[in-house]
Amino acid sequence: MVSVTIAGLSVDLAGRSVLRNVGATLAAGEFVGIIGPNGAGKSTLVRAMLGLVPPRAGTVCIDGTDIARLPPRQIARALSYLPQGRVLHWPLSVERLVALGRLPHLAPLSRMTGADRLAIAEAMRRADVIDLAGRTATELSGGERARVMLARALAVGAGGLVVDEPLASLDPGHQIDVMELLSREAEAGALVVAVLHELTMAARYCRRLLLIADGALIADGPPAEVLTSERLAAVYGITALVETRGAAPLIVPTGRLGKQ
Amino acid sequence: MASRRNPALIPVLAGIVILAAAASLALGAVPLAPARVLAVLAGQGDSVARIIILELRLPRAVIGCAVGAMLGLSGAVLQGYLRNPLAEPAVLGASNAAALGAVAAIYFGLAQWHVIVLPVMAIAMGLAALALLFVLAGRSDSPLTLILAGIAISTLAGAGISLALNLSANPFAAMEIMTWLLGSIENRSAEHVWIALPCIAAGMALLLCDGHALDALSLGEDGARSLGFDLVRTRRRLLLGVAIGVGGAVAVSGAIGFIGLIVPHLLRPFTDRSPSAILVPSLLGGAALLTLADILVRLVPSASELRLGVVTAFLGVPVFLVHLLRERRLW
After folding, report:
1. B9-327 has which fold?
2. Which residue from B209, B223, B229 is facing A83, i.e. has the nearest CB?
3. Å from B80 to nearest chain A CA?
4. Half-sphere exposure of A212 toward its Cβ, with a 13 Å CA cutoff?
5. pLDDT tier at B2 (50, 70, 90 boundaries)?
6. pLDDT of residue B85
7. Which of A43-47, A253-257, B311-315 has the highest mean pLDDT?
8. Taking residues A221-242, what's their average pLDDT?
9. Can you give chain B as a three-state secondary structure string?
């Protein structure tokens, strides 16, 4: 199991300050949603967590060790990452694609062992893609492809799972499938971090939300505390109906506020 | 992770390479019976057969296999690395730069000093182009930057070759440059083998060790890096491998196009389509294809011997037509 500690993290991209002084401790078993407007720095935050962009200041520690001092393979085995867009450049079979998740465990030029095969089968079972094993991944529907990509991330067998916009372009049914899959991983003890735009989904499934706006961490806490009408107005520039009768708030955006 | 789709692929290709190499030893202006070829290879045989085989055909067969293997492998590696099925060794400028080195050796008359001068200048120019490629592409790891830098270098080297042809006062030198540029492996000696083989072996060693990183790149750069691959090092190894290996190949064979482009295309349908699965098959397939093309060159009756680069260029066309037809779903 894995915990991540982010302290005073600032990141510049192409000379522009994208993240400023972000700090949070993310523990094993948490399902953390990262929300915020487009361009707020959410993806940069998760990429910095994985060491894919160097910080200008501050640190990210995995289980207490600064990732700047960890070799990339070790980070890869601790945190698996599903980037935005479900990129796949070759028409691989589903099984072959899921097998890519085992690469952090393979020595150069070596082949997969029985343990790798087991991990692949297990990941395919958890993501419910066993039926798709022989299909060509580039020819799947959006919902199927999303699950297959998640299976690839699960096959790493990492203690942490970082997913960037896993719900993009999915219908509500497939959105629920993905969120339930991620919740089960968190319940099983994994740290799950998901960048999300679907606020109601985030509120319903995540136990904790980090709200990022303009490179800064604005709020960090349970969904009901983070998602208030005032914050939605200030951060997203929207008016919204926030219905808090149930356990999780329901958010229905109703209008755009004039830009301040 | 070898292809599970066709476990026989590598043995079959290896068999074809061996048969093609054997045919390359037996066939030519003077046909030799298999028994005489075997006798020479076993260290015996008559003196005529010995001279023909050991001094003419063996170097030619070895160079054919090695150059073809290098071109096939580097095409497969670059298609995987750049995630572009149209990539080939020429896109990084290595082939053209090495050709420019060779052309300069002919143009300035240096090639006459010793048989070794031309290949050495070709390899040196290939490495110079690599250095320039690193300067131009900088630290960016996008494939597009690399392709743009490669095309710039390739065009510059091509312009240099044209300039040499343009300024060549001596028509014989111009003719020699033209003929060399068409690509051929006839009349190659043991010296050529000894200069090409170490370069090609080093290039192959560098290219064969990054199969996993190429597979990971199927998921894009962030995907590959998040699986623990240091893409900066991968790129350094791959570019160095292509520059040394292709430089060494072009140095002894001239510019032979299309092998690196078509071989991975021909073989990809027999694999699971992951970039690592076509590396060894492309190496073997390149060796087989170039050796067979070289046999064809010898057997086709023509006034002056056909050039290898011309034959491979003609072979490239149908392969792309078939792909075009498949893409348009007419096949």
Report:
1. ABC transporter involved in vitamin B12 uptake, BtuC (1.10.3470)
2. B223
3. 9
4. 29
5. very low
6. 84
7. A43-47
8. 92
9. CCCCCCCCHHHHHHHHHHHHHHHHHHCCCCCCCHHHHHHHHCCCCCHHHHHHHHHHHHHHHHHHHHHHHHHHHHHHHHHHHHCCCCCCHHHHCHHHHHHHHHHHHHHCCHHHCCCCHHHHHHHHHHHHHHHHHHHHHCCCCCHHHHHHHHHHHHHHHHHHHHHHHHHCCCHHHHHHHHHHHHCCCCCCCHHHHHHHHHHHHHHHHHHHCCHHHHHHHHHHHHHHHHCCCCHHHHHHHHHHHHHHHHHHHHHHHCCCCCHHHHHHHHHHHHCCCCHHHHHHHHHHHHHHHHHHHHHHHHHCCCCCCCCHHHHHHHHHHHHHHHHHHHHCCCC
ipTM of the complex: 0.92
Domain A4-256 sits in CATH at: 3.40.50.300
What average pLDDT does this structure show over B48-60? 86
Q: Is the model's pLDDT at B140 over the cut of 80? A: no
Q: CA-CA distance, A149 to A170, in Å (whole number)?
A: 13
Residue A87: list chain B partners with CB under 8 A. 219-220, 223
Query: Which residue of chain B comes nearest to A95, CA vs CA?
Result: B272
Residue B115 in contact with partner chain A when CB distance is under 8 A: no
Q: In the predicted model, is pLDDT for residue A202 greater than 90?
A: yes
Chain centroid to CA B172: 27
Give pLDDT, residue A260.
Answer: 46
What are the angstrom distances between the C-alpha of B225 and each of A91, A105, A137, B279? 20, 14, 21, 21
Which residues of chain A are within 8 Å of residue B209 when distances are taken between CB atoms?
A: 108-109
The answer to whether the beta carbons of residues A229 and A33 sit under 8 Å apart is no
Task: Give the single-character DSSP code of A199.
Answer: H
With an 8 Å Cβ cutoff, are B273 and A52 in contact?
no
Interface of B with A in 209-228 (CB under 8 A): 209-212, 215-220, 222-223, 225-228
